[in-house]
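Worked example

This section walks through a single chain of length 331. The input is the sequence exactly as stored; nothing has been trimmed or padded.
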Amino acid sequence: VLDGAHAAICIANAGATVGGLEVCGAGRTDASFSGSSVRVNSGIASNIVVNGGAAWGSAVFVGPNALFTCGVITNLTRYSNKPCNPVTLSCGTLSDTVIAGCTYATGISVAEPPISTHSAICRVTVANNTSLAGTSGLVANYLVDVSDTDFVGNDSTAGGAVVSASGGAPYSPNLTMTNCRIVGNRIYNCSGAVTLGNYAHAAFTNVLIADNEGVAGSQTAACRGLSVAGSSTSTYRNCTVAGNRTAHAVNAGVSVDTASAAKTFSNCIFWGNCGTEGEGSSNFEVTGTGTAPSIKNCCWPEAARENGNTPDDPKLRTVKRYRYYPSPTGS
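Given that input, the structure is written out below as tokens.
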């Protein structure tokens, strides 16, 4: 259904598939609207290019059990400083899609679910975008599973690359990330390239957080690689946080607050992160007076040789402009 008054393309039939189209210059400017270029309430949108447009709201909306796949979203801008983002997911799936060359307020947004079903993001690339008012890659405050997805080379003037500010019951874990890269992003006035706020519950497996740059701003935010708040319950397996830099004299790698929730790290590397105070003390820090995180079979320069941890150099190597970081076990 083509509906120029609300969305350029609106799919509302569970058995429908619409594809092979290009939407140019669409965008709702009279009021905020989710899906001004493509709105998939149900059904499938496939092989659709969203090119340009000044949105107020989101360019693409994917509703419960709907799918937006094999698409491209590019040259998007926001209308008159209004809130906008490239995609809003509400229990829908975004797959095999590239979001690149856009200027927006925040990145992919996960809406509060109308049903107890996870949204899903798989095989998506979010690259070389500019966020003018918040997180450049993903805002994940509700149920979402992210896999085989890259957030690369994005520039934020007021936030990180992946942020989950909250979650809590019944959304535990509200964010899972598997086989993902958060690499080469520029972050500003945010706790980390990946920031998990209080009550954000997360499970990370085979995630690379590397070569992100924190820029000093008017606030005292650290702009490190990974920041985990005290009430965030989270697990990390086969993850690497390396080569992140911050203009602040603070830890540039991982910072974990132990206030009230458990954190577990296994088979992870924290290496080569650098704050202005120098690289040696900038890889892993624990703050707070709660239960210390469980750290096993991990590698960082200050590690004690216990629980399988090691301070030995993991011999990281470089491929093209980004580094490749093997797990401590070599798997």
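What to look for: Residues 1-5, 319-331 have pLDDT under 50 and may be disordered.
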